[in-house]
Amino acid sequence: MLVLFEIPAGFALFKVLDEGKLNNVVDLSKEFLAADSARKVVSLKAFSKFENTAEALEAATKLLESTPSKGLRKFLRAHCDGETLGVADSKLGNAIKEKLKIDCVHNTYVMELLRGVRTQLTELISGLGAQDLAPMSLGLSHSLSRYKLKFSADKVDTMIVQAIGLLDDLDKELNTYAMRIREWYGWHFPELTRIVQDNIHYAKTVKLMGDRANAAKLDFSEILPEEVETELKEAAVISMGTEVNDLDLMNIKELCDQVLSLSEYRAQLYDYLKSRMNTVAPNLTALVGELVGARLIAHGGSLLNLAKQPGSTVQILGAEKALFRALKTKHSTPKYGLIYHASLVGQAAPKHKGKISRSLAAKAALAIRCDALGDDQDNSMGLENRAKLEARLRALEGKELGRSAGSAKGKPKIEVYDKDRKKGAGLITPAKSYNPAADSVRGQTTNSGALDEQDTAPRKKKKVDVEPQEEEAAEVAAIEDKKEKKKKKKKADQEASLPISGNEPENEEPVPKEKEKKKKKKRQAEDSGENVEGEKEEKKKKKKKKKSGD
Question: Where is the composition biased (Basic residues) (predicted)?
């Protein structure tokens, strides 16, 4: 029985000397406590050394995928004829058995045997020291980590950062130079600025024409459309510009050459950036485009740093000043940064830009992680997410119409109320038809209305007059009752105050002093009665005023 053991230096095959010891795991572990006892259990049969790091990395990655490499297949064919092979991976054993027709074993005894071999590896393989094995293990682990992350020279995003920076600088320089040409040549031919709007076409036209007097003889069909060419030639005849000498025209043409060369280099640089973006970040490019994707990578520093950011950070990347200003002043935070220039956000209506930018940022964060750490090299994920976002944009644009029609999801349909219609049934009563006989002439209605008002007015006045009369009668009766009660009390007091004696006659007149007292009391009572009546009259007047105001 043979045992396959992989190390950073190569593949090793060990011959099991005593297979009977494999049945007892405890005793097997004791055999590898010392180097001498370990040599009695296994011995090195063959060793295949890796030539370089690339070969070691290829073999290690194949083993991770449970498939034998080309070198391992050759090694096993040469040394495993008619032998049983113990392996550490059952899937690898199945692959070896299918391709090489070698019987493979994977069980607890084999795993314990491999564990023991690992403890005494430097003693079992002659010429392999611990100081040599450690650097090899470290180098292979780094190489393997890079392979797991799919790190390759083609995915270097430093070139993208430099290219997009240079592209922005070229745009600024081109704009500055083009405006300088327009101002400089505008003194000679000011009408050309209005006729030719494009900066590159303007520079080509100036370079070809030179003096405006040459415009009638030249053919501008390769540069300008026919209508613009005709307008240019007509304007050159009647131009109000000043004359310039040949030296000035020579310097202007040299500046035009600079603009044209820079524009050509910019086109080449854009093609280079486009190819690099499709190689490094194909999914991000499919979602937001080459320029926006490159600016996001440049702003994040690298594709890997950008992959560590959440979707909310990707959404406002490039609007940091606005964000911190909003947080400081307690205003609303920005909804988008560099991602605003993506085509999907540009297609959305102003009220939907925030929602689309948030959805696009979430999908872009997934696409960035897929590009930085994923295995796939195509842009299928980006195209699929772009289709979903376009569908969401169409849904947002159509939702407003759906809501106005009452067909939005989760909301009941609003119907016009009809009192003659019952739920789930027809009409309760027949629909009323229009009766033209009920119409009246406008003049008649006004007369009848005036008569009705005349009839109702006196009735209301009568009601108003009757009510205060009844109130006055009731008040007068109450006052008279009070007077009668007071008179009775006075009489009773007078009778009580008179002396009773049998000698005096009953019909004898009272004393004159008592008569004077009675007169005074009557006067006081009359004065108090007048005051009460005056107060009552004032109350009545106030009530009448209130009623008339109402």
Answer: 539-550
Interstrand relation of 42-49 and 10-16 (parallel, antiparallel or unpaired)? antiparallel
* Domain-terminating residue out of 95, 126, 149: 149
**Domain holding 223: CATH number?**
1.10.287.4070
Residue pLDDT, tens place only, 370-408: 988 887 778 899 999 999 999 999 998 886 544 433 444
CA 103 remoteness from chain centre? 59
The pTM assigned to this predicted structure is 0.49
Residue 304 and residue 222 share a domain: no
For residue 3, CA distances in Å to 31, 93, 250, 378 come to: 17, 11, 84, 41
> How far, in Å, CA of 160 to CA of 278, rounded?
11
296, 281, 382: which is closest to 338 by C-alpha? Answer: 296
Per the listing, tokens 């500046």 go with 255
Boundary (domain end) residue, out of 399, 415, 450: 399
The dihedral sign for the CA sequence 371, 374, 378, 382: negative
3-state SS of 52-66?
Answer: CHHHHHHHHHHHHCC
* Span 479-494, average pLDDT: 75
Query: Which residue range is the domain that position 319 belongs to?
Result: 281-399
Rg (CA), the chain: 56
SS3 221: coil
- Return the top range by mean pLDDT from 100-104, 383-387, 461-465, 487-491: 383-387
The Cα 378–Cα 381 span in angstroms is 8
Q: How many domains does the chain have?
A: 3
Instruction: Judge if 11 and 114 occupy the same domain.
Output: yes
Region for residue 416 given its phi and psi (left: phi exceeds 0; alpha: psi -120 to 50; beta: otherwise)? beta
